[in-house]
Amino acid sequence: MKKILEQAKEIEKRIIEHRHYLHQCPEIGFELPKTRAYVINVLTQLGYQPKEIGGGIVTTIGDVSKGKTIMLRADMDALNMQEDNDLAFKSKNNYAHTCGHDTHTAMLLGVAELLKNNEEALQGCVKLMFQPNEESMGGAKAMIEEGLLENPKVDVALGLHSISGVFDSGTVVYSDGAAQCSSDIFKISIQGKGAHGSTPEVGVDPITIAIHIHLALQELISREAPSDDKLVLTVGKFVGGTAANIIPDTAVLEGTLRSNNEKSRQAILVRMKEIVPAIAKVYRGEAIIEFEGSAPVLINNKEFVDQMVSYFKDYPYPVIKNEGMSAGSEDFAYVCQNVPSMFFYLGTGSCAEGYLYSQHHPKILFNEEVFYLGTALLTYAAMEWLEKGQK
Q1: Which residue in 313, 327, 321, 318 sits closest to 347, CA to CA?
Q2: How far apart, in whole angstroms, are the C-alpha atoms of residue 116 and residue 137?
Q3: Domains 2-179+297-389 and 182-294 belong to one CATH topology
Q4: Which parts of the chain fold into alpha helices (H)?
């Protein structure tokens, strides 16, 4: 571990430079032309032969005839929001890397460089996965459907996520078993009938319908979901109307349902499909609910986790097992469904250190001094598993 940490420290400046470039040109969903071009260019200059798949990028290093294949993953997409800070490398458009995916991509590009420097020592193959559209829960699935886990066949996979505002810088946090909740992203479109604000009786108010739908969905969680299950239903977007004295024709609600239990998840999804049009009908309107993206519960493979943690014994920062389960969601869960996998967190600054905001907040900051640690952890874990874990 010490040798790889030293090598990662030597390229720390380049890892940070990668992050600065990506942070300034954030892109969302599958539409990542600048991001993909940058990643492909860096990989090509390092001597890789990257290819696009499912809107993302994949490349390999090593010799599969010598052993098995471990895959390392980074996501590349940003969020449709603006950041609020004074960074010299602040976003130059209306999107923002407030979840830290730019840090993941930068760290994995660092891994690509370290693996090239240690290629002769690889006892098998490492596949690098640069994924689009994690935020809308579609990127991993799209890449898998286009053959991500084949040619060469992936045997195990490892994913890392920066986390700020919670754990001290450098801290590794992991779980075995169920670690992240499922996520279902929904959109509810409500059709009413516009009218003047002084004569609501001649119209059908979609805002009123939207409010009742919102309240009814929350009642599903408090009155129909098992109390010992973790279910969270959040409406994060409510759009309706253009002026104070006009009842609009339409309104839209968008949100997510998260669950740690597949049976409860499916039951609530059925009830959502029943309730939404029924409530709209009660108030003389119409409504449809659409599900635009989903991910299952993320389940880490305990045996593989135990192997990874054993490799971290000489890591110079705390390695903590999280006994709970996060209500956050991750479409790396699709990879976990197909191959033994581990998804873990790297602390990039706690509140005590002055990092006061967490993921998706416009003021979030990440401690750049730990990025090389993420690169080192992924590199060392891959090399150690190829040498020891696959036997």
Answers
A1: 318
A2: 31
A3: no
A4: 2-10, 12-24, 33-45, 101-117, 139-145, 206-223, 262-282, 302-311, 333-338, 371-384
Domain parsing of the chain, residue ranges: 2-179+297-389, 182-294
Strands 341-347, 156-163: pairing is parallel
Q: What are phi and psi of 42, to 5 degrees?
A: -65, -45
The count of other CB atoms within 10 Å of the CB of residue 81 is: 16
**Other C-beta atoms within 10 Å of 146: how many?**
14
> What would you report as the CA-atom Rg of the chain, rounded to the nearest whole angstrom?
23
Q: What class, spelled out in words, does domain 182-294 have in CATH?
A: alpha beta
Which residues, given as ranges, of the chain have pLDDT below 70? 390-391
Report the distance separating Cα 203 and Cα 217, nearest Å: 25
Please provide the DSSP assignment of 10-30 as one string: HTHHHHHHHHHHHHHS---TT
Question: What is the pLDDT, as a whole number, of residue 292?
Answer: 87
Cα separation, 105 vs 100, in Å, equals 9
**Tally of residues, the chain:** 391
Domain 2-179+297-389: what homologous superfamily? Zn peptidases (3.40.630.10)
Answer whether 252's CB lies under 8 Å from 240's CB.
yes
Side by side, which strands form the sheet with 69-75? 51-53, 56-62, 125-131, 69-75, 156-163, 341-347, 172-174, 319-321
pLDDT at 390: 64
CB count in 10 Å sphere of residue 245:
8
Q: Would you give the DSSP letter of residue 385?
A: I
Predicted model pTM? 0.90
Q: Computed from CA positions of residues 75, 80, 85, 90, in that sequence, does the dihedral angle turn out positive or negative?
A: positive
Per-residue model confidence (pLDDT) at position 89:
97
Q: Omega before 152 cis (within 30°)?
A: yes
What values do phi and psi take at 333, rounded to 5?
A: -55, -30
Amino acid 389: pLDDT: 73
SS (H, E, C) 226-265: CCCCCEEEEEEEEEECCCCCEECCEEEEEEEEEECCHHHH
Angstrom distances, CA of residue 284 to CA of 192, 210, 242: 8, 12, 21
CB atoms within 10 A of CB 313: 8
